[in-house]
Specification:
With about 190 residues, the protein is mainly alpha-helical. The protein has two domains: about 35 residues; about 140 residues, Nitrile hydratase alpha /Thiocyanate hydrolase gamma (Nitrile Hydratase, Chain A, Alpha-Beta Complex). Helices cover about 50% and strands about 10% of the residues. It is built from eleven helices and four strands; from the N terminus they run H-H-H-H-H-E-E-H-H-H-H-E-E-H-H. The strands form two sheets. It has a two-stranded parallel ribbon with strand order 1-4. Strands 2-3 form a two-stranded parallel sheet. Helix 3 crosses helix 4, helix 4 packs across helix 5 and helix 8 packs across helix 9. The longest helix is centred in the N-terminal third of the chain and has 17 residues. It is globular, with a radius of gyration of 18 Å.
């Protein structure tokens, strides 16, 4: 397990050295951190998913032209173009991987997790998707087919997880709180209320 206090201390030390040597400007680092904390990240994708759960017309637009539908919510750029939305159902579960490198939709999911870029995930997701899902704590019924989607620089995927039961009448903000980054990659499910 990573000690977040230790990680923060190492990050602060590295930043101090880079600033001291003149390699980076503190304002530039602050702007980058601000961008990834507030402008890009999994909360953007969660808003997209929540809108699709609560607005059937938006859901149809998302499934037919994800790039445009996602842009409607103001999320564009930085590997967010050429998007395809895939809907999980009781019969079909999508799992996203980039077998060549780590193509990833930063605009809606933020920075890719370390495991997404690892050779072990990239190869096992294709060879043994049920095993990979089990490693993430996801066990699907045998009748549920798993479709592995290979992300590339030309197309990136957003998985729309199944809406949890018992969420009828919920606001989009409340629904978005149930959507995790992993559920939008397919290595997880939306949280139960």
């Amino acid at each position: 397990m990573v000690d977040n206090g230790s990680m923060a201390a190492r990050t602060e030390a590295l930043e101090s050295i880079l600033v001291e040597k003149g390699y980076v400007e503190p304002a530039a680092l602050d702007a980058i951190v601000e961008t990834y904390e507030h402008d890009v990240g999994p909360r953007n994708g969660a808003k997209v998913v929540a809108r699709s759960w609560s607005d059937p017309a938006y859901r149809e637009r998302l499934l037919s032209d994800a790039t445009s539908a996602i842009a409607e919510l103001g999320f564009t750029g930085r590997a967010g173009e050429h998007m395809v939305a895939l809907e999980n159902t009781p019969r079909l579960h999508h799992l996203v991987v980039c077998t060549l490198c780590s193509c990833y939709p930063w605009t809606v999911l933020g920075l890719p997790p370390t495991w997404y870029k690892s050779p072990a995930y990239r190869s096992r997701a294709v060879i043994d998707p049920r095993g990979v899902l089990a490693d993430f704590g996801v066990t699907l019924p045998d009748a549920t087919r798993i479709a592995v989607q290979d992300s590339t620089s030309e197309v990136r995927y957003l998985v729309v997880p199944m809406r949890p039961e018992g969420t009828d009448g919920w606001t989009e903000d409340r629904l978005a709180a149930l959507v995790t980054r992993d559920s939008m990659i397919g290595t997880g499910l939306a949280m139960s209320p």
